[in-house]
Amino acid sequence: MFFKVFHQKKRHFKIFSTNIIILVFVLVGWTSALTEVAAQQADIAILLPSTASGTAEGDVDYARSVSRRFVRMLKSIGFSADQLEETSAATIPRLQDTSSNPYRLIILPLNSKISLKTASLLKSFVTRGGKLFVTYNLADEVASLLNLRSIKWMRRETPGQFASIQFNAPAILGIPKSVRQASWNITVAEPTSPQTKIIGHWYNAAGESTEYPAFFIGEAGVFFSHVFLPDDIRTKTQLLAALLGHLVPEFQHAMAKRELEAMTTVGHIKNLDTLTKFVGYGEISEAQQALQTGKTLTTQAQTEYARKDYYKAMTAARESRDALSKAYFLSHLTDETEGRALWNHSGLGAYPGDWDRSAKELAAAGINMIFPNMAWGGLAHYDSSVLPQSAKFTKYGDQIAQCVKAAHKHELEVHVWKITWNLEGAPKEFVDKMQKDGRTQISSTGDMINWLCPSNPENVLLELKAVMEIVRNYDVDGIHLDYIRYPGSRACYCDECHKRFMLATRQHIQEWPASVLPRTGQHAKAYIEWRAQQITRLVRLIHKRTRQIKPDIKISTAVFGAYPDCVTSIGQDWIAWAKAGYVDFVCPMNYTEDSKYFTDLLEKQLALMPKGVPIYPGIGATASNSLLTPDAVIGQIHLARFLGASGWTIFDYTVNISNTILPAIQMGVGKRKAEPPH
Fold first, then answer.
1. DSSP state, 615?
2. CA distance 368 to 357
3. CA-to-CA distance for 205 and 504, rounded, in angstroms?
4. Among 114, 403, 560, 651, which one is least packed by beta carbons within 10 Å?
5. Which residues, in sequence order, are CB contacts of 348 under 8 Å at separation 6+?
6. What is the distance between the alpha carbons of residues 144 and 123, in angstroms, rounded to a whole number?
7. What single string gives the DSSP state of each residue in 389-442?
8. How far apart are CA 663 and CA 655, in angstroms?
9. 158: buried, middle or exposed (CB in 10 Å: 19+, 13-18, 0-12)?
10. Predicted confidence (pLDDT) per residue in 526-559, tens digit
């Protein structure tokens, strides 16, 4: 394992002492930025659907998720957005134009149906010159405002059918030529008036046009036939900026201002003077050149902004930030002793069917560990006799065998990512059998949950057999456990848990589950401890049995970062596992865009962790609640090193990470030493 050892030269101590000052700047800057955002009055409203208008509850929840992504994207280009419930929209003065400062743009993130009141409100809004930005769902009333007609909803017919969008809209300043977007379905629509234009089409993974429109624009606004997904988020944010600047030209001023404010904030560094010092310590000529280019472009951006040519100012500011980011990437030092890992959720690498390409690419970037997701509670991407085999196994073959062969060829460790208990993706017949046999979890309200119950000995044996099968049959370096927990405080309250808990505590508990519910139950504390013991039992058994087969194998876990809250909420006592020696390292999922919160979490985790058990903090480059730019990822790696972590783990290895994050890592933090001349 790649444990952390700090043997730095004198010059490097100078860097670290400077970074103490930098970290203070980070904290102060974060506080002032928060105050500034709070004081802004939004020009944009996001109208959330409601079940009252006939939208399904699941769609309402997903709309909130889409809305949160919009909020983050908008914030990054200089805007705040009010998230409004559709049911209360008719009572909001700024939507009724009774305010001196009405909204300029309304976003409909996933509104399959709208009420008559909302339809009337939107019609009035558009008549007054307001603009709409609509994604995925196209209600008839909204379609008519955009001069569109919805044709059908379409699921992709082949994998990779909707892989990217290419644009042809020269009149829209700053619009990218293409963006990557791996969509699985779309809404097919067509214009009903020449006024509405198709500006982008879907292309498949082979780069061929599908002929299906992706983006429409007209006088009243924009329609996108799917929703913004996290892949290629930076280009999508530039796309959003271009479209907003075209719809509402006045927005360009605010966006240019934001670009100028952000252009010298790179990674953990917040101003040009500090960046100049940081780059200077590295004494790398290529970094110095990039820094000088960035400074020249910074001056150019400021000049164009003063001239009120906001588009040119934005362009120069982005180019400046790219150059300054390059200087920042190049100025980081490699650390050959740390664990540099990536999670791979698909289990296929970045290029399905070609693990050698993925392994070669990772090794070239300086990555030394890969955590491929090869098994769930009821699914395997390898030749398993314990779990049902997946469609990925059927199509691409044994993924563990292919991954291990390729990874070891390129000197990468393979820690097979095993998801425990969770039956997501498992064949229906398998799930049905588990439910029929009473082996799945039950919520506090009596609802069935598609997770295996951890107190059931048969389930423990199933998980153990699946792990043992991997360790016996494949030359893996480690087992990486995920979902090694309960789904939440609402589970499990099945009849068998009732019996086993009474047996363990030697108490007769009649009021079930009321007497063990968190905060209110008489036996809540005892039940929290008992639940944690059920999870710990599996970790202990996996550690013991795997070591009997392969003494040097490493056991690791992906865990919730907030400890000890996770013990109470999900039964995950990972500090206890570390103290007992059941795990060799842990990867707390510290997914956040906030450097201060990342730092706070990691400081607490390092203080709690027993000596000798490394922490590789999880960095959420593309997690649902974290969408990090390459410099932000490098910034969190820097902070992890500065605080003394033994390495780091990035979520999630895909083509997107390959195109954005890996090149940044390769420039500095993961850079390999040059081979000596022969």
1. B
2. 15
3. 55
4. 560
5. 355, 381, 392, 396, 399
6. 9
7. BPHHHHHH--HHHHHHHHHHHTT-EEEEEEE-SB-TT--HHHHHHHHHTT-EEE
8. 12
9. exposed
10. 999 999 999 999 999 999 999 999 999 999 999 9
Contact 343, 556 (CB under 8 A): no
CB atoms within 10 A of CB 349: 29
The helix-helix angle for 355-364 and 655-667 (nearest 10°) equals 30
Q: DSSP label at 515?
A: G
Q: Do residues 489 and 569 touch, judged by C-beta distance below 8 A?
A: yes
Residue type, 423: L
Q: Among 207, 252, 244, which Cα is nearest to 224's?
A: 244
C-alpha of 73 from chain center: 14
Tell me if residue 1 falls in helix, strand or coil. Answer: coil
Give percent of the chain above pLDDT 90. Answer: 84
Give the DSSP per-residue string, 350-381.
SSTT-HHHHHHHHHHTT--EEEEEEE-SS-BS
Pick from 39-43, 100-104, 578-582 the range whose average pLDDT is largest.
578-582
Q: What is the DSSP letter of 100?
A: S
Amino acid at 36: E
Cα distance between residue 532 and residue 676, in whole Å:
52
Nearest-angstrom CA–CA distance, 81 and 70: 9
Question: Where is 44: in which H helix or E strand?
Answer: strand 44-48
For residues 81 and 430, give the distance between their C-alpha atoms in angstroms, rounded to a whole number.
Answer: 45
Instruction: Pull the structure tokens for residue 616.
Output: 């590789």
Question: Could you tell me which of 647, 661, 618, 640 has the C-alpha nearest to residue 482?
Answer: 618
Query: Which of 40, 29, 81, 70 lies closest to 266, judged by CA?
Result: 29
pLDDT digits (tens, 9 = 90+) for 141-174: 999 999 999 999 999 999 899 999 999 999 999 9
Burial of residue 169 (CB within 10 Å: 0-12, 13-18, 19+) is: middle
Is residue 447 within 8 A of residue 397, CB to CB? The reply is no
Amino acid at position 621, single letter:
A
From residue 195, give the alpha-carbon distance in Å to each of 108, 187, 198, 219. 21, 20, 10, 7
Work out the angle between the directed axes of helices 272-282 and 285-306 (0-180°, nearest 10). Answer: 160
Cβ atoms within 10 Å, residue 395: 11
Token pair of 582 as six digits: 């059941």
C-beta of residue 367 within 8 angstroms of C-beta of residue 336: no
Strands 209-217 and 197-203: antiparallel
Closest CA to 414 of 540, 545, 554: 554
CA distance 330 to 326: 6
Residue closest to 474 by CA, chosen among 538, 407, 565, 556: 407
**What Å distances lie between residue 53 and 107, 115, 329, 650, CA to CA?**
17, 5, 49, 40
